[in-house]
Amino acid sequence: MDRESREVIFEMVTLTIISLLVGTFLAQRFKVLVLAPVILLFTVILAFGAGIARADAGWTVGLTATMTIVGLQIGYLLGIGIRHLIVVARASRLRAASLGGSLPGSTNILPPRWR
Fold first, then answer.
1. In a domain, 30, yes or no
2. I want to staple 23 with a disulfide (CB 3.0 to 4.6 A). Which of 30, 46, 76, 98 is the partner?
């Protein structure tokens, strides 16, 4: 593998990792509708911009753009999954805390206002 091919592959992997991280961040803060403008922005600026600046072949620019778009979408899905797990963990903790003193056989004998 020559040096130019390694640089193109490194660029694609780097942009894919960045887009995964950005997608995960977007899932934590925004709804799914934010993906459309971000995909457009990432594709035009990062993928096409980097390909044109480096004078890459058309297929490498297209592949970089595709990897960037897929990375954003997979990152968004991972972020939604992480957010779901956080909400479930928080809900179970709150449910356990609210039911803890009222369960039969509870060892807490103090009235609720003294706890």
1. yes
2. 76
Would you say residue 25 lies in a domain?
Answer: yes
Model pLDDT for residues 35-87, shown as the tens digit of each residue: 899 988 888 887 777 777 777 777 888 888 888 899 999 999 999 999 999 88
Length of the chain: 115
SS (HEC) of 22-78 = HHHHHHHHCCHHHHHHHHHHHHHHHHHHHHHHHCCCHHHHHHHHHHHHHHHHHHHHH
Residue 18 lies in a domain: yes
Within its chain, how far is the Cα of 42 from the centroid? 15
Asked if residue 103 belongs to a domain, the reply is no
